[in-house]
């Protein structure tokens, strides 16, 4: 088959890890008989530098015309003092929203070769874990109205509006139950319903849906407790569904239980639009341009592209197996604990390609 893939390389380590993921896609293509049309799309700080805007005209349309989008990461200190509308992160939120990518799948599993790198108690690490964090991606506080203004007696004030509709909650909720049916049939919905009205609506909608899926075990959990339960024993979780900001934070937390944030991929999915695949990490300006970034998260994002956009589970499994083989033979980038000299980004990518 021939696939049209839009590449948003982005900023910082984005181009370095996308390059390795593209190499892996090419290798899988050669082995399984697929070819690609690559479409380089400008977005983020690099787009601001080249065009004066982080989200140039034509970026959205180029992604819409593709079968799938692969993204590295955007942002960095160079662009931190720009006005909010010109910041790279604004473009990231815009593309997610414009493509209708409301469901962000962030799998966090302890890969067998990395048990020793897991910071949990050894009896907990021995059990392993495999959870799917499903993050609502196009609503909530990241998309609410922002204000900053001067008061007469309290200095400056700022506010960010957190808003959710029943429709937004229901569609991510259904995704959670449907995903759970393909896994271990357990959903934990994470909210802050003891304080937030958005969470009370979230919980009411989830309870209504839970009645429609009696074969799936359902429970609620407050987000502060969830942050603790994740580091106590992540094997408690199967599908964990939550709103945008809670999901952003909890997934970075979960990543460290797997060994490094450089390992975790994600898939952002809508109803009838191309999926967008990206590592959960950011542009890592502290290691950018040094051949130090772990390319595994980007490479596993390519595996998710095969699984969720192209419906080719064999190709996805071939990539995952190649990653596991590299890890079990002791290959480590600097972010992962291990003995011996760490491998660079390019060397790690080369070894994974060789394993396919
Ligand atoms: N999807 C995206 O484009 C995202 C962009 N960002 C942006 O990225 C910039 C940096 O954000 P930070 O808060 O520093 O988060 P970050 O995820 O970029 O980095 C946090 C820490 O993890 C390390 N790290 C991240 N990815 C790694 C990898 N693949 N291999 C090895 N080490 C890795 C970094 O070196 C750093 O020490 C900011 O401008 C932020 O807004 C942040 C998160 C997501
Ligand atoms: C702009 C941020 C919401 C990006 C981020 O941290 C993420 O999506 O994980
Ligand atoms: Mg994040």
TrEMBL record:
Record's catalysed reaction(s): (2R,3S)-3-isopropylmalate + NAD(+) = 4-methyl-2-oxopentanoate + CO2 + NADH
Localization per record: Cytoplasm
Pathway involvement of the protein, from the record: Amino-acid biosynthesis; L-leucine biosynthesis; L-leucine from 3-methyl-2-oxobutanoate: step 3/4
Top-level EC class: oxidoreductase
Keyword Heme: no
UniProt entry keywords in alphabetical sequence: Amino-acid biosynthesis, Branched-chain amino acid biosynthesis, Cytoplasm, Leucine biosynthesis, Magnesium, Manganese, Metal-binding, NAD, Oxidoreductase
GO cellular component, one term: cytosol
Name the UniProt record assigns to this protein: 3-isopropylmalate dehydrogenase
Co-factor note (free text): Binds 1 Mg(2+) or Mn(2+) ion per subunit.
């Amino acid at each position: 088959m021939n696939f049209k893939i839009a590449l948003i390389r982005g900023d910082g380590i984005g181009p370095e890890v996308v390059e390795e993921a593209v190499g892996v896609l090419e290798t899988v293509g050669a082995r399984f008989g697929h070819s690609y049309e690559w479409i380089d799309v400008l977005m983020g700080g690099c787009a601001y530098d080249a065009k004066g805007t982080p989200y140039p005209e034509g970026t959205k349309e180029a992604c819409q015309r593709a079968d799938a989008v692969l993204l590295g990461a955007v942002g960095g200190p160079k662009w931190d003092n720009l006005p909010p509308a010109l910041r790279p992160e604004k473009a990231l939120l815009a593309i997610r929203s414009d493509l209708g990518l409301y469901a962000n799948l962030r799998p966090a599993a302890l890969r067998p070769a990395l048990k020793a790198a897991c910071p949990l108690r050894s009896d907990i690490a021995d059990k392993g874990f495999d959870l799917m964090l499903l993050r609502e991606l196009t609503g909530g506080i990241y998309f609410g109205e922002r204000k900053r203004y001067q008061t007469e007696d309290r200095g400056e004030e700022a506010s960010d509006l957190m808003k959710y509709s029943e429709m937004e909650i229901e569609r991510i909720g259904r995704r959670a139950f449907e995903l759970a049916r393909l896994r271990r049939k357990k959903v934990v919905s994470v909210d802050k319903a003891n304080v937030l009205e958005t969470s009370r609506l979230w919980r009411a909608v989830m309870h209504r849906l839970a009645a429609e899926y009696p074969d799936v075990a359902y429970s609620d959990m407050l987000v502060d407790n969830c942050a603790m339960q994740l580091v106590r024993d992540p094997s408690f979780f199967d599908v964990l569904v939550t709103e945008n900001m809670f999901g952003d934070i909890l997934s970075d937390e979960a990543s460290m239980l797997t060994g490094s944030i450089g390992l975790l991929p994600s898939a952002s999915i809508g109803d009838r639009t191309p999926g967008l695949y990206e590592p959960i990490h950011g542009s890592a300006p502290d290691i950018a341009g040094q051949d130090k970034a772990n390319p595994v998260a980007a490479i596993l994002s390519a595996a998710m592209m095969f699984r969720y956009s192209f419906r080719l589970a064999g190709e996805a499994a071939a990539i995952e197996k190649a990653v596991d083989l590299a890890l079990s033979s002791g290959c480590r980038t600097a972010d992962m604990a291990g003995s011996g000299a760490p491998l660079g980004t390019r060397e790690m990518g080369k070894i994974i390609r060789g394993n396919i």
